[in-house]
Each structure stands twice: as C-alpha cells, then as structure tokens.
Amino acid sequence: MRIAVTGTPGTGKTTATEALADRGVDTPIIHLNDEIKSHDLWTERDVDRDSLVTDIEAVRSHLGEWDGVLESHLAHHFAADRVVVLRCGPAELESRLEARGDPPEKARENAESEALDVVLSEAVEEHGPEAVYEIDTTDRNPEAVADDIAAVIAGEREPSAGEVDFTEYLLP
Ligand SMILES: Nc1ncnc2c1ncn2[C@@H]1O[C@H](COP(=O)(O)OP(=O)(O)OP(=O)(O)O)[C@@H](O)[C@H]1O
C-alpha cells in the first residue's frame, strides 16, 4: 500500500509522520526531501528561494516500486494508492513557518498557496478525488494528526477533498 503524505510546507508532514514512526508502526516511512538531498536527486539550486529544484524523473526511478508512506510537499506527484493532504489555516501556517525560522516572505507565499488550495488541487487532478484524504491540522496537535493518518493507512477513513476553505485569508 502506497500512502503519499503531502501538503504545503508547514502543514506538519514531517512532524506527524515522525509521531507515527515513534509509535513503532511497521509501515516504512520515506522522508523524500532527505532522499533528494542524500542522493542528489535535484537539477539546480534556486538561489532566490534558497531551495533545490527536484529532478522528478530521477526521484521516480530512485523510488522504484516503493511501499509505505512517502512524505514530502512533492509526494502527490508520484504514483500512490491514497494521498493524504495536510491542511493548515494560512495565518497559523505563516506563524508556524516564521517560528521555525523561514523568511517572512517565504512564509507568506506558502500561506497564500495554502489559501488557494494549490497542493489539494494538484493532488485531486493527479489522483482523482476518490484517492484524496484531506486532513485539517489547524489548532490540532501532531499526535491527533498522526491518528488521522493512521486511520487512512488502515482504511478506516473515507476519502474527502475540498471540504476545507481558507479563501477568506485572501480577502483584503
Ligand atoms: N500540529 C501542529 N501544530 C502546531 N505546530 C506544528 C504542528 N505540526 C508541525 N508544527 C510545527 O510547524 C513547523 C513545520 O512543521 P513540519 O516541518 O513538520 O512541516 P512540513 O509540512 O513537514 O514542512 P516542510 O514541507 O517544509 O518539510 C515546525 O516548526 C513544527 O514544529
């Protein structure tokens, strides 16, 4: 079973999947961003955004026939059986990102992307609504989010997409 855990940076993918791993689940968890760095699966450095441009095809061949949980804001770009999209209210997302040291303009850019449902829309377009599981992490602790991800893995949660609406963040 291949579970992609995706979402705008700051929605808590790493934290929630690490909480899951701490429970000793027997599902392998792949932190894709670590794989990209450790196996040089990138094409160039984006100096302006202080990030690496991922080589999607190189990642695809590196992953091969993977199984378990694939965690990254890019995870929905790869074949998966179920796609978990973590969501977070843009204002809280901006605060989380700034609190961890991200530059304010980058935090704001991600908050606007979250308000525009960018990752959710890509996930639904690439996998279909029947494979997408939206989980709102706003004002919830990582353990509760990990519980919801575990429910998706166990097949105990119905697919849901588009129930979260953060567009008011974009209002002047
Ligand atoms: N449920 C939560 N409630 C409050 N803060 C959280 C929660 N989950 C994560 N955080 C905090 O938000 C920040 C971002 O979390 P995390 O790195 O797990 O997000 P991410 O989605 O993996 O981000 P990225 O895609 O950049 O790796 C961290 O400082 C983390 O401590």
From TrEMBL:
Belongs to the adenylate kinase family. AK6 subfamily. ATP binds at G10, G12, K13, T14, T15, R100. GO terms for biological process: ribosomal small subunit biogenesis; rRNA processing. It catalyses: AMP + ATP = 2 ADP; ATP + H2O = ADP + phosphate + H(+). Keywords: ATP-binding, Kinase, Nucleotide-binding, Ribosome biogenesis, rRNA processing, Transferase. It holds the Pfam family AAA_18. Its EC number is 2.7.4.3. It comes from the Archaea. HAMAP family: Adenylate_kinase_AK6. This is Putative adenylate kinase. Residues 99-109 are annotated as: LID. Broad-specificity nucleoside monophosphate (NMP) kinase that catalyzes the reversible transfer of the terminal phosphate group between nucleoside triphosphates and monophosphates. Has also ATPase activity. Involved in the late maturation steps of the 30S ribosomal particles, specifically 16S rRNA maturation. While NMP activity is not required for ribosome maturation, ATPase activity is. Associates transiently with small ribosomal subunit protein uS11. ATP hydrolysis breaks the interaction with uS11. Interacts with uS11. Not a structural component of 40S pre-ribosomes, but transiently interacts with them by binding to uS11. It comes from Halohasta litorea. GO terms for molecular function: AMP kinase activity; ATP binding.
